[in-house]
Amino acid sequence: MTQLTVAGLHKAFGSHRVLTGLDLAVPAGCLTAVLGPSGSGKTTLLRMMAGFERADGGTITIGTAVADGPGVHLPPERRRIGYVPQEGSLFPHLTVEANIGFGLARRYRRGPRTTELLDAVGLAGVARRYPHQLSGGQQQRVALARALAIRPEIVLLDEPFASLDAHLRASVRADVQQLLREAGTTAVLVTHDQDEALSTADLVAVLRDGTIAQCAAPQDLYARPVDADMARFIGDANLVEGVRRGAMVDTLLGTLTVEQDAGQAQAAGPVTVLIRPEQVELAGSDEGPGRRLPGRVVGYGYHGHDAVVKVQPEQDPGAPVVIVRTLGAGHLPPGSLVTLSVRGPVRAWPHQPPLAD
Amino acid sequence: MTSSPTLPRDRRQERAPGPAPGRRARRAKRPWALIATSTLIAAVLALPLVFLLVEARGDGLSTDAHLIFRPLTATLLWNTVRLAVTVTAACAVIGTAAAWCVERTDLPGRRVWAVLVVVPLAIPDFVISFGWASLSTWIQGFRGAVVVMTLGVYPLVYLPVAASLRSADPGQEEVARSLGTGRVRTFIRITLGQARGAILGGCLLVAMVLLAEYGAFEIVGYQTFTTEIFTEVDEAFSLPAACALSLVLVLLSLLVLGGEGVTHGQGRISRSGPLAQRVSPPQRLGPARIPVLAGFVVLAGLALGVPVGASVYWMVSGMPPAISGVPLLAAAGHTAVYGVAAAALATLMALPVALLAVRHGGRMRQFLERSTYLVLAMPGIVIALALSYFTERYASGFGYQTTPLLVLAYAIMFFPLALVGVKASLARVPAGLDEVARSLGQRRLAVLGRVTLRLAGPGLVAAFCLVFLMVVTELTATLILIPTNVQTLATQFWAYEKYLSYGQAAPFALVMIAVAAVPSLVLGRFFNRSVDPRVTT
Fold first, then answer.
1. Least packed by Cβ within 10 Å: which of A176, A303, B6, B520?
2. Chain B CA closest to residue A154
3. What is the pTM assigned to this prediction?
4. Of the candidates B441, B442, B533, which has its C-beta nearest A132's C-beta?
């Protein structure tokens, strides 16, 4: 069931067109992330869902009711949207308890609902404190509890973790995820952080050029991006050129199998091939050339759980550096000789003009 | 109701406001009520200007030209302009320096000085003038006017500059220092830059006060447009002449107001960022602290000590009463009633206009807000003149010299002050809070009551106090519009002073200072309190 539907949404600020016919369907009970670089219009989209901004065109439907459409603009207070802004925006003159109870009718403000939420966010001990006496993570949790208190149709979160310290971010993110799951609430999260989107959301919608370029589960988004740009935007990517011959493609890294996909009708011709860094296998130079590509290490980044090695193919100094993610290899100083091979099928798209990196 | 598997049954019970979305989805709603109210208020504020223009037309253009182009006008113009330039410059220097020392240095007794340097604002300029002139004949003419007015109005620069220095990001200064900029150059390039808007804004206020002042100049015998207009009305009973001079005065004020465009370029204030604000460690004055401290002592002595001391001296010296007047208590009562009524009216009038300006940008609304500033170009005497002329000619005297008309005149005169205060306090409430409150199901009016006004409260009180203070110390318009047989503190003081009955005048001066000091202390507290994180946001 779809909880929120956005269709053909347009929005411009003066001559600056932010959204150009955006479509998005948010399923009920899911956490959907809207992912996009800064300035892509994701906050504008969220603010329009909340009713703070008006659409220039298109419709927004919440549940079964049209909230925005031709001649219709439901004011924010009648949308039943829980909104959690970036900074939390707690009411500074009210206690934690009063903040959470703000949206409830007067007689319920100090009732069981408030207590229940205080417990849920684990802040029962600070119910009488004022926002400025809380840490950033606590403020964010109060903001979420305040939004959930009104039992909204949908919760909108605008980069809710961006203002938190890195070490807090992961734990607050997990708390929020759990709270939303427990409440069974539909939620839309706006973020520019791919890791956050991939690890938190059930569904990720990538906002690009004023529309949703792709909307898919995180795994699908990573494994099957719609185009090379998307591949580069979601995670690290080696994009190499190749020539396709049916199910196979000839590349610098050998002849590889192309993943079969309904959308990939073209059977022959120049293509751009996506090879994820973890698809590349690294071996010592003594492994014998065979079908492996010899190369020289030009960069080595150690991350504890894994390492990222950058390899310049030997035979073709003009070829792009290949990024390899490896679990096993020990320290590889720059200049080391290695050989590369590719594991598993790859994605390929009909050739596009060279992409600036 | 829309059905949703994620929502429990009892939600209606928990969340009272409004039916489910969709049932009464309406057309986009603009804040029409606010726009209508603001337009009405702008119209009321425009009344004096309209009356003045009507009045000027009534006399015929040639009469006006004849009355304007004469040597007297040139003299008045020269007097007014040179005084305005001199005093404004002096106030800018004194006010800024004092603000920086109090806000950013380790000056001993900063908290006490923060209050003492503001108190002269509570002393009517004509009382300062009286204090000085009654002690020394040296304080006369241009010289006297400069000394008296500088001491009386420099807080108008001090207050905004201190507030802006307090809220400015101390990080900028630290970065400048770290980039190798010295102390002095950092002060000039960063600190003064941060406070520039406030300094210019303060100077603007000073210049406007100078154009409107009457009592202080009358005492030191300095002739400006305002004193001349008053003389034409009060002694020569020449309305056309007063009216023609008023036109020139209004033009002059408009010219000064043009400077407002320079200070206005700061745009809408929208604060984002962490709630808590860092406070910078004070600059060390080192060996300079002794001369700086001496400077503050002298400033307080001249601006506070002389007028208060002179009043006490005249009261104690027991001169025989020259004329009879109303008792002190009765006068104080009238002053308080007028002050409270006018302050409440002005603050109420400012609220819709400020809400419109702060919360709903847009060209038409900005125009509306700007247009209300036109009142600033109308010195009190002109407003009083216009209102009394109107009641005389078109209402056959109905309302002339009545309490409602006087209160309305005050409210119009001090509307810009109230607006500045209300706007500033509303701008301190982040717009995001309003949005969150609305998303939680609260209507605009409920948001206003439960969030916006609650947070803006201290600022509203400050605006109220500011207007009250101005009413208590107002003399010019009061003299023209006050109901017959009623005396306020200011008018009774003026009557005694005029007949050189200093001993009788002095108690009224002291009570005026005491009454006005209360709001000015509240003001000082309010501006100091912004350190409190609950108010800062």
1. A303
2. B6
3. 0.72
4. B533
